[in-house]
Amino acid sequence: MTSQPVSFPSPQTAQFNKVPDVPSVKVMKDMDKRLQTMCRIRTVPYDGALGDKYYVNPMADIIAQEMANPCVREHLRFYPEDAGKQVIEYWQASDWHRETEPLKLIPMANIGSQHFFIHKPCFLADGHACVPFGWFTCEHKLFARAWLLQPVVGEVSSGWVVEEYNEIDVSEDMFLVSFGLWTSSYSTQSLPNPTNILGTLSTVDGPIQPWTHTDAQQGNQWRALAKGHHVYCFHIWFYCNDTLGNTSKKWNKHNSLLFTPAGLPHTHVHQELNVHFLCTLNLAPLLEMLDGIVDQLE
Q1: Residue 236 to residue 260: CA distance in whole angstroms
Q2: 236-293: per-residue pLDDT in tens?
Q3: Are 175 and 264 part of one and the same domain?
Q4: What is the sign of the dihedral through the CA atoms of 207, 210, 214 and 219?
Q5: Distance (Å, rounded) from C-alpha 101 to C-alpha 139?
Q6: pLDDT tens for residues 27-81?
Q7: Neighbouring-strand partners of residue 144
Q8: CA nearest to 81, candidates 93, 96, 95, 92
Q9: Can you list the positions of beta strands (E) in the chain?
């Protein structure tokens, strides 16, 4: 819910109860104002497409507080896990690990002092080059799903061909040089420019197809947007509570939109502090309110 200003007892009440060193009401109100500015969840008004006015607590504000909350942050998971046949948590399911489009998952890994992004060439410790297209953990270790890169050197130009048929799992220990570092040092390694991707091969003897995952010159869009910061993907369970079970009080019928962080263990995800309210109204239809939340996501 949206935080509200706090009512403070008067100095006379404190004196009556013999409480020493009590700050004045003005000091407490000023402090509350500063805290509200720093920590409060805003409430954004929307005029619905059907003419109803409703208010939404911004999802970005709530997620920012979740990421800063030490009671929550230490339990959040951002990478899928390969746990074999044992599936206990959501991040162990194939939906997150294998079936979800890579661009909708966490796009980077922080290994050592370097940031490795999906769909960007990188150099490995064994002398090979690859393009990661997904990240996962296995037995508490980080891995990348990656395609091998094949260098092509010609008299006029040179570059790389992505062997999409040659998928490998690369341990975090094998990553040596990220795209950012490689682009500034490739000329000293007698290797083609990593920004020059000639195309992809889906089969060993098939034709070379255009590279369409990213702009090879610019790289992953999140790398540019991050400006050196870590990039995370915050999964959520989004749901609606329509209170239809309450048939004795028609005035109480309403729709509420809420979410919980999907990256929490199942023992935490339904705890009250992890269920976050977005909006509610007993007049506006569900899809009308959902339009405001979609607007925030976009």
Answers
A1: 6
A2: 999 887 665 555 555 566 778 899 999 999 999 989 999 999 988 777 788 888 898 8
A3: no
A4: positive
A5: 23
A6: 888 888 888 787 788 889 999 889 989 899 999 999 999 999 999 999 999 999 9
A7: 135, 170
A8: 92
A9: 44-47, 53-56, 108-111, 114-117, 122-124, 129-138, 141-153, 158-171, 175-177, 197-201, 236-241, 255-261, 276-281
Q: What is the distance between the alpha carbons of residues 199 and 222, in angstroms, rounded to a whole number? A: 22
d(CA 275, CA 73): 15
What percent of the chain stands above pLDDT 90?
46
Which of 166, 201, 226 terminates a domain? The answer is: 226
Pick 186 or 172 by higher pLDDT: 172
User: How many residues appear in the chain?
Assistant: 298
CB atoms under 10 Å from CB of 44, counted, come to 14
Q: Report the Cα 244 to chain-centroid distance in Å.
A: 33
DSSP secondary structure of 188-212: GTT---TT-EEEEESSTTSPPBPP-
**Do 103 and 187 reside in the same domain of the chain?**
yes
Q: Which two tokens stand for residue 156?
A: 């006029």
In angstroms, rounded to a whole number, what is the distance separating the alpha carbons of residues 295 and 279? 14
From the DSSP assignment, how many helices (H) and strands (E) are in the chain? 8, 13
- The string of pLDDT tens digits covering residues 78-112 is 999 999 888 999 999 988 888 888 888 999 999 99
Nearest residue to 78 (alpha-carbon basis) of 259, 231, 296: 231
In the chain, % of residues over pLDDT 70: 89
* Residue 258 CA, distance from chain mean position: 18
Expressed as residue numbers, the domain containing 261 is 40-75+234-297
Which of 191, 206, 226 lies at the terminal end of a domain, its last residue? 226
Q: Is 152 helix (H, G, I), strand (E, B) or coil?
A: strand
